[in-house]
Amino acid sequence: MVNVHIWIAICTYLIIAYIKHSIKNTLSIYEITQIRVVSALDKTPIKELLTESEANQNVKKQYNLFNVDF
Where in the chain are the domains? Predict the structure, then answer.
């Protein structure tokens, strides 16, 4: 039974590594995995999820919630 879990983990890692390589994405495999976990029930294509997440990470101005000087 443990062997099945190990093989599933290896296959999942390899699939995500292949997706990362084919999209030529700069995110880590961990970050890609976290994006997939959050959007597991969403029908958005993975390529679209990963390109949107990179675009959202380049936010230049972040508002401070405790200081209301906008």
Answer: 20-56
